[in-house]
Each structure stands twice: as C-alpha cells, then as structure tokens.
Amino acid sequence: MRHTHPDDPATPPLLAAQPDLNLLRTFLAVYRSGSFTAAASLLGLSQPTVTTQIRNLERTTGHDLFERLPRGVTPTPLAHDLAARVATPLDALTAATGHDPEHLPPAAPVHLAGPAEYLCTCVMASLAPLVADGVRLRITTGLAEPLLDELRAGRYDLVISTTRPRGRALLSEPLADEEFALVAAPTWAHRVKNRLAEEGPTALHEVPLVTYAEDLPIVRRYWRHVFGRRLTCRASLTVPDLRGVLAAVVAGAGFSVLPTYLCRDAFASGALVLLHETDDPPINTAYLAQRPGTPYNPHVIRVRDHLLRPGPHVCEPAT
Q: Residue 188: inside a domain, yes or no?
C-alpha cells in the first residue's frame, strides 16, 4: 500500500469509514503487545482471527498499520497516529462497561523519568500526597534524548523532557519554563560584577567556569542570547549534576549559568549573587511527554494531570 503523509491534502482521513469497535480493540491490543500472537492471547481470539481483523482495518483505513517482522510487528507512523486518537476513549469505554473496579488488580507503578535536578527540586515533594493516597512511583533520572527513546520503547509512562519530543510517536504538553542566570559567590561578584557591566563578558576570563558538561551548552546559549557573541571560556570544573555545579559555585569555585529555580534559596541567603541583570534571560521550556496507546492505568492519568496543574512542582523563576 502507498504510504502518504497524514497532513497531505490528497490523503483521505485515517478513519474515513466507520470501523467496527472490535477492529479498533484488536488494533490496540496488537499495537500494545507488538505481536499478533500476543494480542490473540490477550483478547481470547485465534491468531488467524486477529490477522484477519487487522487486514480488514487496514482496508478500511487504506493504509498499512504494521510492518511485519520475523518476530512480531512494529507500528507504522499512521498506527502511532491512530493509537493516539483511539486509545483513551477505548480504555474509558472498557473501564466503564467491561470491568468492575472492585475486582481490578492494583494499578501498576507509574514510571516517571526526567532531569534529576528538576525532579528532586520541584517535583518530588509535590508528588508526596499522591504516594500517600496509594499511587506507586518509580523514578529514573537522565538526559532528555535517551529518556525519550526509552519512552518510545515503552520503558516509562511519563518523561519530563527539556527538549520538545519530535514526531508523532509521543504526545507532549508544555510543563514549565526554566529561566537561566549568570551567577557567582559574593567573593567573585565583588571582584568582577562592576567590570562585567563596563567591559562585558571578557571580565570573566580570569574567573574559573563551572559547568555540568564539557560542551558547555547552557553557558554557550547564554553568551549567544545575552551577550550576542561566542563563548571562548573553557570549563575549569565539570560536574554532571546542576546541584553539584550550584554547590561548587556557592563554595567559591567560580561562576556558572544556572536555572533560577535551583538558585532560589542561595539568592535568598546571599550565598549566590546575580552577576548580570537582563530583561531578556534565556528560557527553556520543559515538556511532559507520554506515549500514546499505552495500557490504561488510572494512576498514570493522576500523575500526569497533577503535574500539568499549576503548583509548587512548576518551578517559577526566582525574583
């Protein structure tokens, strides 16, 4: 079958005809299990029946929905799109008509992943009431792209990502904006802050730079955005955790660029000083990502909805 882009005006709607709900349930079982055989077992059907139903649905939609592999199947981009459309209403229908909640097994743990600093500083305390109310959580920390890859593979339920997920395989909603600031301990600030205002960023060449990665992504972006020039400093201390960078800077190791939510207490106590004031600081949006078509788990919905509501977990920039 010819694969066409869903946004192509020549492409008919994915569900131009009204498919049987049983076909959609079978599709969702195959999508989630990755196998016609496994879906048949879940649905109590024969494997040939599942195969026939998927073929019927593919004829109805006019598109291939799965690529057949030596072992199992993999969804096509259009299958990801269809799953995103039908999973939530089908799961709600099943919960309303097919299962007695009193006889359902306990909800599985919710696997949430994201940057360690944001999770520990902004998110964990706000999730405590959900845990006290019976929600089970499993937390993993890491960098955005590897975590999103694992989300696509089904390892996690929700991922907080500092980059916007690409493609149709993941759903995402903006969660919060991180604002960044150029900071140092008072001892360094007294030496260079006035010079920085007069001379520009070259005044910082004598100050050690503390960063969380050798390629200096946060600091380089700040230099381009605020100073309009290329960063020429090299890192003197690299710590792969922004909380470690903060601790080193507060202790007087040098200067850095940090998200302001992480610096709130240090600003309030005077342990950290803003080196440069700007009306247009760099801002990075964090997203809450979820894989469409995942098995219905009411606790995942509770955690997702809780995180998307305004609250202390949405760290506002320090003032």
A: yes
